[in-house]
Fold this protein.
Amino acid sequence: MTPLLAVEDIHTAYGLSRVLFGVSLEIAAGECVCLLGRNGVGKTTTMRSIMGLTPPSRGRVLWQGRDIAGWAPHRVARTGIGFVPEDRRIFAELTVWENLDVAGRAAGRRSRWTVEAVFELFPVLRALRDRRGGFLSGGEQQMLTIARTLMGNPDLLLLDEPSEGLAPLVVETLRVKIGELKTQGLTILLAEQGVDFSLALADRVYVLEKGAIRFSGAAAELRADKALLHRLLSF
Amino acid sequence: MAASFLFSQFVGGLTTAMFLFLIASGLSLVFGVMRVVNFAHGTFYMLGAYLAWQAVQWLSPTGENFWPAALLAALGIAVLGAVVERLLLRHLYGREELYQLLFTYALVLILGDAAKFIWGTGQLSVTRPPVLAASLHLFGAEVPLYNLFIMILGPLIALGGWLVLNRSGAGRLVRAASYDREMLDALGANVGTIYTGMFVVSAFLAGLSGALVTPIESVVPGMDVEIIVQAFIVVVIGGLGSFWGTFWGSVIYGQVLSFGILIFPGFSLFSVFALMAVILIIRPWGLFGRPIR
């Protein structure tokens, strides 16, 4: 069976500074795969490469068997890949509702996710409907970013460090919500530095180090092997 | 000083203001959304005036077909804007701002010379459309109906523009594009198309104001540079990229110019430059603008 997404040996650089040196990974439909690694190893760059925001100079990005490497980001989004950036990038001057509405219009494809449906998933946002994005707390912004991307009805969600900088209680809420999305059948690629958050959700794990994959295997395997964890991530 | 005289100065200032608003709003919109400072915006205005004159000659030199001629001219400039953005300007996004400045300045020179080549260096004028040729007596002053029309059109366009930007789906997309182009792209919107749309709307407004100014002012080479300087002063006063800032900036500019002449008769632009200097010192980001983060 062809995987939903297969990244094959991609090399990506920002100008002269090379970040990825031949990253390959696969995600099957319905899986939750985690991309683990410390700060600056290339997790965000891997996601930006898939999304077309920083196109790889070499290698292929196969989406349902079709090479989409080098496509403009809006085309990638419209094929069904949703990106939730690490820095959230809420449209700060737009209200919560406007942020969601814009995302629905931007995607331009029929979505099972309506504003009402994402409010069901994140009830907090319903109460904040008319508040400007810039006036939300970090956790609320993170929920809005995920909700906004869902408006485009993605088949695959690229989640870049959703737990970063959030209070433990909020992180726990997010974990439950992402778990719900997974249960609903959404395929997820999750980039994380923290092992607890990611291993609780992931089926499989890739560990990135210095722009290359150093480990790939079942989440349970990594969780059980403390020595390996320590060597790869110094936990 | 007679009240009627003051009132007619006020009307004159307001007419200037509304023309400036139509021009400066396009300049401000393109900067606000695309971060491009378009020097050629004044050139679009001038070419709109020339095209309107030309269209009037073709359709009816006596003036009864002024309105279709003005619309034709504005549409012509909108097409020119689309060509400029799609074929040329597009390649300069994301580069240093200096390249965009040089490019739009080059357009000023090239299109300005092209206009001289086609229409010569003389003054061209258009008669006022017959419907609005009369004048109205208000507070003892004589107010031409055409000026009144401009004074009503300006706020209507301001209100319409504000409604579109703040209350429509297309407006929300435009605002999102101005805050974070890349993020909107990643959400699936073709930001390139939005940019083209913005540039075309902006060129249309410039062309329309150029066409509408022809019954009041004669069409001459150099009106492009003259208007772009004034439009820049307006957006600096109001705040670059701020919609209502541009509106109120225009109103303030028009009134200061109109009454400033009474105080410093020899230096018509002195008072506006002085105003701009003061505002730049107190609020460098303009009256309605925001400090750049």
Remarks:
- The radius of gyration of chain B is 19 Å.
